[in-house]
User: Fold this.
Amino acid sequence: MKFLSALALLFSIAASSVPHSTLAAPPNVVFIFADDWGWGDLSSHGHPWLKTPHLDRLAREGTDFHQFNVLNPVCSPSRTAAMTGHFPARYTIHQHFATPEQNLERAMPDWLDPKAPTAARFFQQAGYRTAHFGKWHLTSRNIHGAPTPTAYGFDEFDIFNGGAEVPSADLHATPDNAVKFIRANKDRPFFLNVWLHESHLPHVPTKAALEKWKHLDEQQRVYAAVITDGDNAVGRVLDALRDAGVEQNTIVLFSSDNGPESTGTDKGKGKLDAETGESGYGGYYSIGSTGGLRGRKRSLFEGGVRVPFIVRWPGHTPAGATNRTTVFTAVDLLPTLCAAAGIALPANYRGDGENLLAALNGKSIARTRPIFWEWTGKKVDPDWWPRLAVRDGEWKLLLTDDATRVALHRLDGDRTEANDVAKSHPDIVARLTRLAFDWKATLPAQPDPACISAADRAAPPNGRNKAAAPAGQPATKAAPDRAKAFERMDTNHDGVLTLEEYKAGMKDAANLEQRFKNFDQNGDGKLSRGEFVTPAKK
Assistant:
C-alpha cells in the first residue's frame, strides 16, 4: 500500500513538471476574415453610429492589435498572403482574380498555385479537421479548371468566388456552415476559415438588419445593416464555440482583407454582380471608415492596408487589452498559428513572415523583418499613386516604379501619413529604396503556366487580346532569360550556382548575399537551376 502511495506521488510530481502546453489539447483555430471592412468600422474603434456588439465582445475578451497590415489593398493577393505566409507577388498575384482576359492583361495566373504552402495544409497534416466557408477568390467564378479548396488542404468547403465548376454558396450561409462544422468537430481539433462577404459590393443586407436601422438616412441605413449582418455572423460563431464547450481552447481571429471601398454614385439596387452572382445596393452606400487613416481600398497608404485585427485565446491572449506597438502582418499568421498549435514548419518552408506568438501571449515585441507591398492597379492622386512600399521599423516609404516620386513617413508619430519627411531624411529614403528594388528583383515576371486556364486563355472572348499566347502559356512581356543567365554563371557546369559564382556573374549589383538567400529556397547554400529560373516557387 505504501508502495502504491509513493508511486502515485511520483506520477503527480512528474505530471506537474511537464509544461502545460504538452498536456493541454491543441487549440482550435477560427479565422474570421471580413471583406472591405475598414479599421474604423467598429464601435470599439470609435465609430459614431455603427454598432458592432459582437466584435466589441471579442475585443473585451481578447486583444485588439492596432498595427496589423494586410499585404495588398485588394482581395485576392491579400488572401494569398494570409493563406501562404508569402508576399502575393511571389505568385504574380498583383490584383484580384477577374476574367481570364483581365488576368492575362495583368500578367497574372488564373488561380493560386495549389503547390503553395498553406496554413490549412500544415494543420491538416498535423491531424486537424479543416474547413473553409464563405468567400474564396483565390481564383474567379468564371475560370474553368481551377483547383477546389481541397487542393489547398481543406477537408470541407462551401464557397463563393470559386472556379466555374464549383457551385456558388449563398452569401448568408457562411455562419450557418461554420456553426454546423463546430458542432460536428467539437471533440477533435479543427482549423476553420469563416470568410465573410460583408462589407463588399454589392451590399445585400437582410431585411431584419435594414429594419433595425430604419431611423437612419438611406445611405447610413444600408451600410449599418451590412455591418450588422457581418457582426451578427461573428456572434453566431462565438456562440457556437461556447455552446460546443470549446471556446476556452479556441483561437479566434477577426480581420479584413483591405480597407473600405470608396463611396460611389451608383445606388445599384437590383444590379447583378458578375463576381458574386448576387444583386444588391451599389457603391453609393459604401461609406466605410478608415478611422482617420489616409487612403482606402486599392491604396498602399495605411487606410488601404491597415485593418482591424482582434485575437481571443483564453488563458493566453490578455483580455480587454490593446496592443498599439507590435507591427503584425498577414504573412505572420501562418508561422504564428502553427507555433501556437505546436506544429513544426517543414524544413524547406521559407516564409516572408515571423512567428509572433509572443505577441499573442501579451508581449509587445518588435518585428525583425521588413514588410513589402506591390500594387499594379489604380494609379491616380491623391492616394493611389504608389506602386511599391516598404516598412522597416517605424519608417514607411512609398514610391513609384521608377522612384521618381517618393513619400516617407514615420508611423509611430504619424499614423495618418500626413507628414512626408522624405526631403529631410535622404539617407533613409536611399536605404529603403534599395530594399524595395532588391525585393522586387526577386519576383517572377510571368505567372506559372500550370496556374493558367488552358480552356479560357485559348479563345479570348469577343476576339480581344489578339496577342494572347497559345493555350497554357502566359502572354506577357518577356521575362529576363534566367536560363541563359544561369548557364553563363555556372562556370564549372555542375548544375548549381555557389555564392561565389553568383556574385561573379552579377558583378557589382547591390545586396547580392541577401538576394542569393532569397533564391535559395531549400537553404542548402547553393542555387539549383529551378530555384534560379523560377525564383518564387517554394
Remarks:
- The two ends are 60 Å apart (CA to CA).
- The chain has three domains: 29-360, 386-441, 480-538.
- Residues 386-441 form one domain.
